[in-house]
Amino acid sequence: MDALVCNGLGIYCGLQSLKYFSMKIYHWRGLWNIPSYRGKLRRIIAQFGPYVWVDYDWKPLSSLGRWFSVLAIIAMFLITELNTFYLKFVLWVEPGHWVNLVRLIFILPWGAVALREVFQFLDDPDITKFGRQSWLFLSIVCTELLIVIKFGWDTVTIPFPR
């Protein structure tokens, strides 16, 4: 009853909404419909990769604004890396603690999606504002930086050794 009525009705309504909004309908092909073992193996391995590979050309020297944008991206990378070490020191978290690993596991995909959105913002003239993931990642990094500054001001302001 559940599969026939609820799921069947949901699939039917979904297909009708795709037709109404003129969106692409995907025709799923099962793994067992692929004739060769090599094709099945390639399909399984491709499952863990991207749908298409995009070649990124940042063109940092194309304009002054583009140059400063690339410098800002590099600064965000460096601040994110520094936050990793400063947060451990300021909040007295042991280096082998599981919280550090979880933070890094979450930061990596968020940063990748945010970087893709920033590239699309810089490269596509039709896009006029940053994506949500970029703003979220920026707010996370800035919040971490504010925590480091608040609880470790003495550590951050230590002068460089000669």
UniProtKB/TrEMBL annotation:
Protein localization: Endoplasmic reticulum membrane
Gene name as annotated: ptdss2
Function: Catalyzes a base-exchange reaction in which the polar head group of phosphatidylethanolamine (PE) is replaced by L-serine.
GO biological process, one term: phosphatidylserine biosynthetic process
One annotated GO molecular function: L-serine-phosphatidylethanolamine phosphatidyltransferase activity
Residue ranges of the TM segments: 67-86, 98-115, 135-153
Organism from which the protein derives: Portunus trituberculatus (Swimming crab)
Catalytic activity: 1-(1Z-octadecenyl)-2-(4Z,7Z,10Z,13Z,16Z,19Z-docosahexaenoyl)-sn-glycero-3-phosphoethanolamine + L-serine = 1-(1Z-octadecenyl)-2-(4Z,7Z,10Z,13Z,16Z,19Z-docosahexaenoyl)-sn-glycero-3-phospho-L-serine + ethanolamine; a 1,2-diacyl-sn-glycero-3-phosphoethanolamine + L-serine = a 1,2-diacyl-sn-glycero-3-phospho-L-serine + ethanolamine; 1-octadecanoyl-2-(4Z,7Z,10Z,13Z,16Z,19Z-docosahexaenoyl)-sn-glycero-3-phosphoethanolamine + L-serine = 1-octadecanoyl-2-(4Z,7Z,10Z,13Z,16Z,19Z-docosahexaenoyl)-sn-glycero-3-phosphoserine + ethanolamine; 1-hexadecanoyl-2-(9Z-octadecenoyl)-sn-glycero-3-phosphoethanolamine + L-serine = 1-hexadecanoyl-2-(9Z-octadecenoyl)-sn-glycero-3-phospho-L-serine + ethanolamine
Family statement drawn from the similarity comment of this UniProt entry: Belongs to the phosphatidyl serine synthase family.
Primary localization class, coarse: endoplasmic reticulum
InterPro entries per record: PSS
This protein's name: Phosphatidylserine synthase
Gene Ontology cellular component terms for the protein in this record: endoplasmic reticulum membrane
Membrane topology: Multi-pass membrane protein
Pathway: Phospholipid metabolism; phosphatidylserine biosynthesis; Lipid metabolism
Keyword Endoplasmic reticulum belongs to the record: yes
EC number in record: 2.7.8.29
Keyword flag Flavoprotein: no
Pfam families for the chain: PSS
Record keywords, A-Z: Endoplasmic reticulum, Lipid biosynthesis, Lipid metabolism, Membrane, Phospholipid biosynthesis, Phospholipid metabolism, Transferase, Transmembrane, Transmembrane helix
